[in-house]
Amino acid sequence: MSSYTIPAADGINTIENQVSNILTFHTFGIKGNAAVTVGKLNIQARIPGSPSTFLVPVGDYDFSKPAAITYAGPVADWVVTPSSVEDAEFLYLTITSIATGKPEASASPVDDDVVLREGIALGGLYVLELEVG
Asked: pTM of the predicted model, to two decimals?
């Protein structure tokens, strides 16, 4: 679990991911140093090896209608942008990250028409490919 403190003022905050890229499923906890009921927080991720301008949308957190934010994939940096946040000077982000998938790839036919191919790209996400013919 990683914890970060950012200013609640409008602006872009780039935070280096503090956990291993093996941990690819992330759940966010967000709160202010005071009760926050107004404002939004935009979260994006930069994938390891990608340019700083290539960001993947993670989610928008609306303090007036809180909802869970999760993300699956390796992360080099988090880019967090508060907007119109009221009543708090700082925002606290807690990111719980866990490993998903299998540690290695394998291929095994399911039957004559379907082959299951497991990939380790992006931390072990799985793709089912149909072979027709």
From this structure: 0.74
